[in-house]
Specification:
By secondary structure, the protein is α+β, with helices and mostly antiparallel strands. It has helices at residues 2-58, 70-75, 82-99, 131-142; strands spanning 77-79, 104-115, 118-130, 149-160, 174-189. The protein folds into two domains: 1-58; 72-189, Ribosomal protein S6/Translation elongation factor EF1B (Alpha-Beta Plaits), CATH 3.30.70.60. The longest helix is centred in the N-terminal third of the chain and has 57 residues, at 2-58.
Length: 193
Amino acid sequence: MSISLIRFGRKAMAVVLAALMLVAAGVLLPSFLLNRYRDTAEDIAAKAQMIVHLRADTVPGANVDGKMAATDRAAFMTGPSEPGALAALQTRIDELARQSGIRLQSVGSIPSREAEGLHLIGVRVQLTADLAKIHEFLYAIETIKPVLIVDAADWTSGTTRLVGVEPDPSQPADLMVQASFDVIGAFAISAGT
């Protein structure tokens, strides 16, 4: 009898342990999975919020509250219409060229395009000037508001000497550059202008 009682005791203990393991697994596993789900959901929500804020910081006009801040508006070329903004851009480019001591050969509009959710407009500029003046001009273009970008540049260089004047070997010839490039910027129709 004692052997059968020992076997019965072992079987009963095994059943009790198995039942405890099932209860533990039934309670702890769902609890673990639920906590893991909550943590993952919170992590996703936090990353989504971070993406919204990053987008607001990097994409003009994409603020979290849906309104364009004054600093964002300053980055855009604005006007009641695209032709008006293009005319203002051409005038601004001509002013910057004069300030840099450059006389432009031509400035004409180029077709507008969409990129990264922005409406881009621009002009093609053609000029011949020495390299230092072109550097000053390009620097002026890319450091003003509204934000302008020099794109699609073609350069041809050569030296110039005055006709009929004997060159002085101790003086380097001026490096003249013929340049053609596009100046583009993002356009936003302004309300009330």
